[in-house]
Every structure is written in C-alpha cells, then in structure tokens.
Amino acid sequence: MRHSAMRLPVVPRISKLFVLSSYLLVSATPFVPLLLGRDVTGWTQLLGMQVIAWMMLWAVFKRPACFHPLLLPAFIAIPLDLYLQAYYGQTLSAHHFAIIAETNPGEAMEFLGHRAWLAGLLVLIALAWWGGCWLLCLRSADLDWTDRSRQVLLTVFGLAGVLVLYGSLTGSSGQDARRVVRFDSSLVSSWELPALPSWATFSINAERFGRTRPLGLGVAAYEFWKERKHLAALSDSSRTFRFGAVQDEDSDTSRTVVMVIGESSRYDRWSLNGYERETNPLLKTEPNLVSLSDVVTAVSATRLSVPVLVSRKPARSSLKAGFSEKSFLSAFREAGYKTWWVSNQMSFGEFDTPVSVFAKEAHVVQFLNFGSYKKRSSYDEVLLNPLHAALRDPAPKKLIVLHTLGNHWNYSHRHPQAFDKWQPSLFDVENPVHTDPAMKTRLNNSYDNSILYTDWFLANVIGELKDTRQVAGMMYIADHGQTLYDGSCKLAFHGHNTQHEFHVPALVWYSDAYRRKHPEKVAGLLRNRHAKLATENVFHSLLDMADIRYPTERLEWSFFSPQLQRHKRYVDSYGWTDYDNATFKGDCREVIGRDKPLTQEK
User: Fold this and answer.
1) Using one digit for the tens of pLDDT, what is the confidence trace for 455-469?
2) C-alpha angle 489/494/499, rounded to 5°?
3) What contacts 105, CB < 8 A, 6 or more positions away?
4) pLDDT tens digits, residue range 286-318?
5) Are residues 350 and 262 part of one domain?
6) Do residues 377 and 413 touch, judged by C-beta distance below 8 A?
7) Does some domain include residue 167?
8) What is the pTM of this model?
9) What local confidence, expressed as pLDDT, does residue 418 receive?
10) Is residue 448 one of the residues assigned to a domain?
C-alpha cells in the first residue's frame, strides 16, 4: 500500500507537464524559422510579448480549464502555420485568412492533392490534442493560479491598461504638451488633460503581436474583419469619385478595347520572349503584336496585385486593404464607354475581395467559373462567347475586361487534353501536389502546355477583334508569375520573392484601323517596348491607348507616350525592395535589395 501511494502523485505531474509542454509548443510556432536557418525579425520583442500575454491570460482566468477553450483556433492553426513557415517563410496572418475565405473546399482539395488526407488527419490530431489538454485541466487544479502574486499582476495590468487608455485619449507622445478633450455636458465644456511623460508611455506593435501565439491569432482575425469592413466602406466612399475623363476626339468613332488579365504566368516561358519551346505558335504570326520585355508586378498574389493593375493604387500600398479611387472601368464609363467585366475566376460576394470591389464598377459583370479550380471547372475559352456577344452590342465604344484563370495551378486543369503537347505531364496524375519536387518534370511540361493554351485563347480574342474592323486594341498582362523548381531551386508555385514571380509577360495588339488612327501611339509603343515598366503603368497606358484624357493624367507613365519616364519599381521582397537595385540569388532568383528595403505598411 505504501509503495502504491508513493506512485500516485506521478500521474498529476505527468498531466501538468503535458499541458505546459503543449502550451509551449503552441507558442513556439513563430520561432520555427530559426530551426530552418532563417531569421525571425524582432524575436526578443516577440518572445517578451508572448510571455506577457500568457501571464495576463492566466491571471485573468485563474484556471487553464477556463481559458483553454479560447486556444482551440491556435491548436487547429498549428499545421497551417508550420506549412506556411516551411514553404513560404510566413506566419498565418489576416492576408491568409482572406485567402482561406476566398477559397472554397474544392480549390483547397485540388491544391493539397493527395495530401488532403494528411491535412485532415493533422486537424483531427490537433483537435484530439486540444481536447486531451482540456480534459486534464478540468480534472486537476494543479495549474490554477491562486496565490497573491496573481492579484499583484492583475493590479499591474490594470494600471497599464489605464495608461494605454489615457494615452490614446490624450494623444500623448511623451511631450509636455496638453490636449483639450471635449465632453458633451451642460456642466463641463472641456477638460485639459496633461500628456503622459515619456517614461510612462508605451505602445503595442499590433503587427508583431499578431505573430505571437496563441493570442496573436485573434489580432490577425480582427485585422481580417477590419479589412472586410474597410472594403465595404470604400465601395460607398468612392461612389462619388470622378476622374473627369473624356474622349479626346472623334467621340462618334466606334472603338473597342479589350483588357485581358492573365494569371500566374511568367515571362520567360513565352516563346515570344525567347523561350526555346514554341509556346506561342499563333501569336508569333500577328504582325501588330508587341511584347513588352521588362514588366514587373509588385506582389505575387492575385488579390493584391490586380488592384494595382486596374487602378492608380501605388505599388507600395498594395498590402493595404482597398483604395480610395475607382479603377479604369469608371474612367472609361465617364468617357462614354460601355464596360464589361467577364471573369473565369470566382466571385465571393459584391465586396468580399479587393478585386470584386473594382469589378462591380462595370455595366455588365459576369463570373463564369461556378466549379472553382477543380478539373471540371471551365477553361478560359468560356470567356469567348461573352466576348463575342459584347462585341456585337450596339454600344459604339466598349471596354471589355477578361479575367482569366490562365496558368494557375493545377496546370493540367487549365487546358483541354488537345494541348497536352509536352509530356510526361500532370494529365495522368490524380491529385498532384505542387510542393513535391519529384513532380518537377511533369509540372514544368504541364505549365508550358498551359501557356500554349493561353496562346490559343489570346489568338481567338484577337481574331474576334479583327472581325469588327474597328479601331480596336487588346492589352494582356499577368498578375504575377511562378517559380517552377528552376535548376537547383527547391521552390514552386508563388509567394517566394523570386524574379520568376515578379517578371511578368505583357503584350499589346492593335488593329490596322487603330494604327491608321493613332500612328503616334503605335510609334510610342514600339519605342518603349524594352522600357523598365511595372503594373503601375497599366492604368495610365490603357487610358492613353483609348485616347481618353482627364485632368490628373500622367502621360509620363504611359508606354504609348513619347513622354514616358522611368520610375522606381518596388516589389514585395523582405520589405519594399527596389527591383532595379537588387541582386538575384541562386537558381531561385531570389530578389535581394542592395539597399535596406523600405518598411511595409499594412
């Protein structure tokens, strides 16, 4: 009996150790990059924030059994956090919440491929892990905080909270200035509150706290909610915005402009640009086609890059939600054009995404991909019939935006089997995974096959425009590129800060009638075909291409203009990096700035 009694305390000790170890592991995910040989910016402050957050959580709730339910999202997020750290060097943030919200289960299943079962298993393990910890917390009071130190700490936290509230109320900045705070009262018209001295002021870096675990997930979720609310508000606030755009001359002349937004296409896989495989057999026969050789996108993510492409949103603001101005769709509308936004991507509600905010500016909005990114989803040719119908609309002037799926993963799902030219491809692989380096050959072959299909699609768009015999033009530009296990590079897909993802294909086609009408613009285009350009140039160039004028125009940003001037091209690579003052590291061609990158504001 005595021997048995001595062994009983071991079980509570093991339970206590299990719970504490679990909380430690949950907190450790932001520091995983250190195990991968990468740096963690401000890791000491991050660690300090995590310790304080845990102390505050424990002090307020006293018992782990009371606060443990709040940790469920953090436990479930561990597999995703580890995945993002391993493959993208990122922690789960508001941006990733947005991507998840804009991705349906079908697309997620396709993206994960045969690893979908593993993802499901990891989630189940995380749930079981969380449930086991909670059960142990409920059964034991060993981890309850009951001594006087808890009261002391609550007092300290309370005082700190008062200081933060007072500082936000007075706008304290550590100076001796005073701020007048007005209250609506019949007794008091205003109080003068002294600012806090510098030693009593402190602030919390919300972005850095959002990287902590577990409480940082709440900050990321709040930022995501704020972004959605902000985008909805922008749709109202920009309702009265006007460019003052007008057609410069011959307003009765029938004109058609088609803007094709590509997806996940990289410059060097187009034979028009020197690729050894003939991926553009049809476009190479077009005499009025001009390929722009040096165009970069600021961010390698659709939801962030497209707003810069369709509006005057600066590249360095691309990580910020929304924009106070409208897009070129509204400028064309002001100039008397009927406008279309026809998309083979998905709609997630009127104001759910940064892209859809702009899409809704068009007279006619069509989202045609009802099957997500699955194999049964539509090919880009689904856009051709709506294009044909729009071109036969009686409106004399038209702007038609075609938003394609282009070369988005899964590459073999982006084209019919008739375009499966280079093999072995992904066509005969069920649920391939882009993160598997063993797929390198098949992945690259299928990617080139998808470019071949894009060539066919664009040739058909040009054919439709030729049939109108109007003053017409088409502009194509991809939102971002792809990394494809280049050489010894171990990366694929996008989001990796590589030249392959920032350097995008862009081209312009013009009709014979357009060349006769605007010979000076064609000459400017040919002169600037090798200029250093960015997606920031698209808004200005598209309006100039249509000969639309507005008071705040910047012809020095139009590649149709002899006034074109070079500007700094910033890309999202470890901060805002000057692309033209950077080196390209290794076979991945990682963009590394020679100067310290500028800080990103979100």
Assistant:
1) 999 999 999 999 999
2) 65
3) none
4) 999 999 999 999 999 998 999 999 999 999 999
5) yes
6) yes
7) no
8) 0.70
9) 97
10) yes
Q: How many helices (H) and strands (E) does the chain have?
A: 21, 18
The pLDDT value recorded for residue 578 is 97
Domain, as residue range, for 583: 254-593
For residues 70-96, one letter each, b for 16 or more C-beta atoms within 10 angstroms of the residue's C-beta and e for the rest, the string is ebeebbbbbbbbebbbebebebbbbbb
Residues 376 and 227 in one domain: no
Give the pLDDT score at 6: 44
Residues 489, 434: one domain? yes
* Domain match, 233 and 306 both: no
Token reading at 550: 């507005």
For strands 503-510 and 289-296, give the pairing: antiparallel
- Which range among 170-179, 216-225, 230-239, 374-383 has the greatest average pLDDT? 216-225
Helix ranges, 473-556 (H): 499-502, 512-517, 519-527, 536-545
Both structure tokens of 113: 């491929």
Higher pLDDT, 137 or 348: 137
Total structural domains within the chain: 2
Measure the CA–CA gap between 596 and 574, rounded to whole angstroms.
9
* Cis status, amide bond into 424, omega within 30 of 0: yes
Helix (H, G, I), strand (E, B) or coil at 537: helix
Token readout for 20 is 């504490």
Is residue 457 within 8 Å of 381, Cβ to Cβ?
yes
Both 272 and 149 in a single domain? Answer: no
CA distances to 2, 8, 10, 143 from 5, rounded to whole Å, are 5, 5, 10, 22
Instruction: Give the pLDDT of residue 129.
Output: 96
Query: What's the pLDDT at 322?
Result: 75
Return the SS3 of 530: coil
**Alpha-carbon distance 488 to 490, whole Å?**
6
pLDDT at 569 over 60: yes
Residue 181 CA: distances (Å) to CA of 5, 89, 170, 171 = 66, 45, 7, 10
What's the confidence (pLDDT) of residue 602? 61
CA neighbor of 573 nearest in space, from 588, 585, 590: 590
- Whether the link from the prior residue into 597 is cis, omega within 30° of 0, is no
The reply to whether 566 falls in a domain is: yes
Residue 583 has pLDDT above 80, yes or no: yes
If you ran DSSP here, which 8-state letter would residue 267 be given? G
Residues β-bridged to residue 339? 399
Residue 148's contacts (CB-CB under 8 Å, 6 or more residues apart) are none
Angle 112-117-118 from CA coordinates, rounded to 5°: 80
Q: For residue range 226-242, what is the model confidence (pLDDT) as tens digits?
A: 777 776 776 776 778 99
Residue 229 lies in a domain: yes
Q: Which of 274, 273, 256 is nearest to 510 (CA)?
A: 256
Tell me: do 232 and 266 sit in the same domain: no
Question: Which residues on neighbouring strands pair with residue 257, listed in sequence order?
Answer: 399, 473
CA within 13 Å, CB half, 346 = 15
Query: Smallest Cα–Cα separation from 477: which of 500, 505, 496?
Result: 505
Helices (H), 421-518: 440-468, 499-502, 512-517
Last residue of a domain, one of 212, 237, 262: 237
Residue 300 and residue 501 in contact, taking contact as beta carbons nearer than 8 Å: yes
